Amino acid sequence: MIYNSKFLELLEALPFEKIVCENEGKSLSAGKLRQDSIALALWLSNKGVERGDHVLMAAEGGIQFLILFYALIHLRAKIALVDPHMGRQLYWAKVQQFKPKYAFIDSRILLLQEHPILRYFYLKRENPFYIPYSRSYQIFSTGYKLPLFQKHKRLPNNLNLKKDQEIINDSTNDELVLVYTSGTLAEPKAVVHTMESLYQNMIAISTLLDKNPNNAIITHLPQFAIIGMMNGYRVQFWKESYAPAKKIELIEKNQITSLFGPPAEYLELINYCEAEKTRFPDCLEHILIGSAPVLRPFLQLLRNYTDAKITCLYGMTENLVIASIDGDEKIRYEGEGDLLGKPYAAINMHIEDDHELKVNSPLMYERYFHLENRPEYHETGDLVQLDSEGRLVMMGRKKNMIIRRSKNIYPGLYEDTICSIPGIQDAVMRGIYDHELHDEKVVLVVESENGISEESIMKQLKSGPHQIDSDVLPDTILKMKIPRAGRQMKVNQQELDKRIKAQIS
Question: Which of 233, 266, 288, 388 is the most buried (most CB within 10 A)?
Answer without folding.
Answer: 233
